[in-house]
Amino acid sequence: MIRKSLRAGLLGTAAMAMCAPALAFEDASQEGSQPVATSQVRDVIIITAQKREEAITDIPVSISVVSGERLVNSGAGSLVDFAAYVPGVNVGSGGSPGQTSITLRGIAPIGAGATVSTHIDNSPLGGSSNYSRSPAFALDLFPNDIERVEILRGPQGTLYGASAMGGLLRYVTRTPDPSGFSVQMAGEMFSLADASSLGYGARGRVNVPLADNAAFSASLFTRETPGYVDNTFTGENDQNELTQTGGRVALFLEPASNFTINLSAMFQDIDSANNGQVYLDPVTLETIDGPRTTRNIIAEPFAKRERYYAARLNWDLGFADFASITSFSNTQNRQDTDASRIFGTIFPLLTGGAVPEGLSEFNLFLDLEKYTQEFRLTSAGDGRWQWLIGAFYTNEESENRQFVSATDMAGNIIPGLHPAAVVSLPSSYEEYAVFGNASFDLTDRLTIGFGGRLARNEQDFAQISDGALVGGATNFTGESSEDVFTYMLNATFDLTDQTMLYGRIASGYRPGGPNVALLGMPPQVDADRLVNYEVGVKSDFWDGRALIEATAYWIEWEDIQLSSVIGGVGGLINGDTARSRGIEFQAVVAPTDGLRLGFNAGLTDAELTADAPDLSGVDGDRLPGVPRYNYALTADYDWTLQNGWDARVGGGVRWVGDRNVSYPASATYMVLDSYHSVDVNAEVSNGAWSLRGYVRNLTDEDVYVSGTRMTNALGAPVFVMATLLQPRTVGLVLSVSR
């Protein structure tokens, strides 16, 4: 029973402060944006989320957009800092940027694969295989050289393919500008409540025209965040220091009036000395040794290395625009976990009492190389027919290596027991797809659209393990192939020139894959699929001073991929069904010049609609990690001072409802309380110099964005590991631009 439980654990595949939600339209500096009077919010942002340039108010999809400028103004450093300002979004954290999971519209990352697709510009990042652990390490970029973040809710499988079941998160980067030379530099200092030292950061970007039709840009950033969690076992204070470093270079060329080339390369490194997590009592869910304290015996560092290279070619053919998008990315994650209270406590049982309890460290190393190629042809002009066709290819090679040590309390290796487990799960994923969509104006007010995507993936994997915790040497291999079709239908009706009603039906899927070669386990797990039904309205009124978006949706999810254990080996099976339904609302209003008020809210009812014995779930249980409610209020005001200076102030409050961890019948079940956070920022600038201040978590709330109830190898609860919302952070930024 011990080995069965351990194998399951080891081998199982297991906006921002001040953001007026999707409608933050006042930022006319965004690529493709058009200038607008400060008293209006109408028709400003032009986005490419549907792979063509469109006004956000004309797209029959529920979308939020957060500008890069606002992310910088708020001092955001990761998704956790701004996601709660977007309706229907929940971001969990393992204790640092990069240890991130994303849920959209209640489609939680149950099982081994991600349910939200993450992209940089037009290229997906993150693994598609069930063995790459993508759900726990989602793309989490520091907002450097970022034009905006686009968040599309609901399945986007027709245009974006695998794993875009709940939706899409897309970082849009800045393009070099041939029109003039510019340089921006900024230095930052900030303090955190309970931290004994200051944090600091610096960033810079230069844009260099090379000719009338060419430009080069380069950017670099670094940020050092002090720790704020004290270890009462080791006596170390502020143990979770964090370093984030990265940069990007880009080249824009226009060799002909109808042909452009965009080349870019980006890197980002994250290094966390320990996690921003605390130990809670498993019964009371209170901190054991006081606020912001932990008890890990062994250090738990985390490191992430991301490298991304892309080339985009655009050719205006007159009747259509042709695009070729090529990318290569390499992502490495190294995560060390103190497993002493999980595995070290059973050393006496594994050795017949010959060895006392000891120390155990769990090391995880993930390495993903991903190549993608997309060709796309998009109709030109604004005729009654609009269409798009394309082809997509990806090849992924993934390494998943795990190591469990066995030492005595002094750190000496225990002969015959060390290493307690060595596991390797190499896998490959190859996919081919063709896709297309079209829309037709039936009348001046009524438009219908439809689309489809046919994809085929082929996968291979091996499961190689040894050690006392996994029952000795094993070597399984597997392969799979599957064909998946997704579709989309929509209709829009312009009730007035300012109000659009729409309906949308769309499907999405998460790839299946090969399984362990074991009697009783299926040779492969099938893709799980869902269908989303939604209706919505987008409207601006009051002479363009107000804009609202409201959406109601219903999602049916079937063949959900679940982990299962047979004969002590973890594998995957297809379960039954779940449902998510809800309402999303976003609004922004500019009652006077310079003043913008925002409100958004989400209601999400996500639950199982059939028993799931492998999850200890029953029909009607809420899906884990999904708040039933979230809302945000924002306000900001800018005005002109004297002598060429301008000023801006703003603030926001975000509220997230309680969330389940696991299911009520599970030994790991608990409920994380709801929480709120208040964020403010202000700035004075004269176009060249700027002094900006920000405060996140103004009231210094001691709350948890995610948590895990830890049990030892025998299933007994030992503690709860909870991730803190970063304490009150007060920052000051001085920047200069030319």
Descriptive account of the structure:
This protein is mainly beta and 738 residues long. Helices cover 3% and strands 55% of the residues. It has four helices and 43 strands. The strands form nine sheets. It has a 23-stranded antiparallel β-sheet that branches. A five-stranded mixed β-sheet has the order 3-8-9-6-7. β20 (361-379) and β21 form a beta hairpin. It is globular and about 80 Å long. The N and C termini lie far apart (67 Å).
Quick take:
This protein is mostly beta strands and 738 residues long.
Key descriptive features of the protein:
single chain; 738 residues; mainly beta; 23-stranded antiparallel β-sheet; five-stranded mixed β-sheet; 4 helices; 43 strands; 3% helix
In terms of structural class, how would the helical and strand content be classed?
mainly beta
Could you list the spans in which at least 5 consecutive residues all have pLDDT below 50?
1-38
Percentage of β-strand residues: over 45%
Count the DSSP helices: 4
Name the overall outline. Answer: globular
Helix content: under 10%
Largest sheet: 23 strands, antiparallel
Rg over C-alpha atoms, rounded to the nearest angstrom:
25 Å
- Average pLDDT, all residues: 89
First CA to last CA: what distance?
67 Å
| Total number of strands | 43
Topology at a glance:
Layout (H helix, E strand, L loop, with lengths): L1 H10 L34 E2 L6 E2 L6 E6 H7 L14 E5 L6 E5 L11 E5 L2 E3 L20 E8 L3 H4 L6 E7 L8 E11 L6 E13 L2 E12 L4 E2 L10 E15 L2 E14 L4 E4 L12 E2 L7 E15 L3 E19 L8 H4 L10 E19 L5 E20 L16 E4 L2 E15 L4 E21 L7 E21 L4 E12 L2 E2 L9 E2 L2 E14 L4 E13 L2 E6 L2 E6 L2 E13 L5 E14 L20 E12 L5 E11 L2 E3 L8 E3 L2 E11 L3 E8 L7 E8 L5 E8 L4 E9 L1
Parallel strand pairs: 6-9, 13-17
Antiparallel strand pairs: 1-2, 3-8, 4-5, 6-7, 8-9, 10-11, 10-43, 11-12, 12-14, 14-15, 15-18, 16-42, 18-19, 19-20, 20-21, 21-22, 21-23, 22-24, 23-24, 24-25, 25-26, 26-29, 27-28, 29-30, 30-33, 31-32, 33-34, 34-35, 35-36, 36-39, 37-38, 39-40, 40-43, 41-42
